[in-house]
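ok trying again, last paste got cut off:
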Amino acid sequence: MSLQKLKEARLAQGISQTFMAKKLGYSYPSGYANIETGRNKLSLANAKKIADILQMDVNELFFWERVTRNE
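nice, full thing came through this time. structure:
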């Protein structure tokens, strides 16, 4: 997972950490900022919410490579 990619995607859309925190239900911007800096682990549910807010695919935003199934 690339937290730098998350930050870059947020900034590219002009979205503040305060806005993200409110959308995710945090009382303070630091709740979201701690995710972006890696201080707090990101749950799958919040990863999906963040991707939705940024209008991105969760895999594109959080995973470096596509996982394929070899058969």
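cool. The CA atoms of residues 27 and 50 lie 16 Å apart. Residues 3-12 form the longest helix (10 residues).
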